[in-house]
Design goal:
Layout lengths: L2 H63 L2 H14 L9 H14 L3 E7 L3 E2 L6 E12 L1 H13 L5 E9 L5 E12 L9
Antiparallel strand pairs: 1-3, 2-3, 3-5, 4-5
């Protein structure tokens, strides 16, 4: 071989080696950096989208937080309507409330009788307490008391049966009610 031919082989070999180093460097060093950059940019875009979503959610929660007192009042009302199951089922308090209502409407609330609790057929976390009341007084006042029981008083009641006995001086109403008690304990809220 001639010297010139050897030099050409070395020259082409060197050029091929340089090209291989450049291509290998590109695939081994530069391209992974571009891929990493693209991955970081995609993650950044996804994070920004999540941030916007969470900021919207935070705005909704801040709006809801402004209504916290309203929610607490609703919870207190619900807890009064459906007290938590305990040893007395809040019946003594309810009887005092009925007697106070009797005084307000000028009728006599007496003859209280309650049977054992029954599980609700429709709501498994609620028990029903059948109550029988005897109310005596003028018919108009008795009707006002019954209307108050059904619409205004806080305790959840269902009037199942009513038997009215009329007389000239005093009328009487025998009411069969169901009071409801929940087995679900909720946090006590101070208003």
């Amino acid at each position: 071989m001639t010297t010139r031919r050897v030099d050409q082989i070395w020259l082409f070999g060197g050029l091929a080696l340089v090209i291989m180093l450049v291509v290998g460097g590109w695939f081994m060093m530069v391209k992974p950096q571009y891929n990493a950059r693209d991955s970081v940019q995609a993650d950044t875009a996804e994070t920004q989208t999540q941030l916007i979503t969470e900021q919207k959610r935070l705005a909704v929660l801040k709006t809801e937080l402004k209504k916290i007192n309203e929610y607490k009042a609703d919870l207190i009302t619900a807890q009064q309507a459906l007290p938590h199951d305990n040893t007395t089922n809040k019946i003594p308090e309810f009887l005092k409330q009925l007697q106070t209502l009797g005084l307000k409407y000028d009728v006599e609330v007496s003859g209280y009788a309650a049977t054992g609790e029954e599980s609700s057929a429709t709501t498994p976390t609620v028990t029903e307490l059948p109550i029988t009341l005897n109310i005596e007084g003028p018919v108009d006042n008795i009707m006002k008391l019954v209307k108050h029981l059904q619409t205004e008083q806080p305790r959840a009641l269902l009037v199942e049966n009513a038997k009215l006995t009329l007389s000239d001086d005093e009328s009487g109403l025998l009411l069969t009610l169901k009071a409801f008690i929940t087995k679900t304990d909720t946090a006590t809220v101070k208003s």
